Amino acid sequence: MLKLRGKTLEIKFEECVTCNKEKFYRLAYTYVKNSHDAMDILQESILKGYSNLSKVKDIRALDKWMSRIIVNTALDFLRKSSKETVIDKESIIVDKVATTADENLSYAIDALDPGLKTIIILKYFHGYTINEVADILEISVSTVKNRMHKALSLLRVDIKEV
């Protein structure tokens, strides 16, 4: 067990996962659009995070570190899975409730390159600042800004076409 000022790192990790479980689930679900796959990604990410606790550099950024693991695990899952999309009952219900504009935006975001999609999801759906997105993705702030500008430009073009 790794000691950290009276509390073990494992306990801090458990607290982080417990406090952010809904946010982490939504992050995984944003990529796969399937509740079962999102849960699998989340479980695999928690296991990866726990087994790599010794690599944590900043305990205060444990939630960002876990978000990074979830994003990478989701992207790996998407690369490994076939191009065929499986839709569960929850997705069908959500699609029926969504407006046409919401559907168009969702499809436009899904069509983005994974690197651009990740930045949009972290910034606009999960509320991270540009600096936090840069930390999570381990890229420079200027790269985040450039990619965000490119993604927003592509989204504007896609939405105007519809």
UniProtKB/TrEMBL annotation:
Query: Could you tell me which residue ranges the RNA polymerase sigma-70 region domain spans?
Result: 17-83
Family to which the UniProt record says this protein belongs = Belongs to the sigma-70 factor family. ECF subfamily.
Q: Where is the RNA polymerase sigma factor 70 region 4 type domain?
A: 104-153
* Signal peptide from the UniProt entry: none
Supply the alphabetized keyword list: Sigma factor, Transcription, Transcription regulation
Name of the protein described by the UniProt record: Sigma-70 family RNA polymerase sigma factor
Gene3D superfamilies noted in UniProt: 1.10.1740.10, Winged helix-like DNA-binding domain superfamily/Winged helix DNA-binding domain (1.10.10.10)
Which lineage do the record's taxonomy fields give for this organism? Bacteria, Bacillati, Bacillota, Clostridia, Eubacteriales
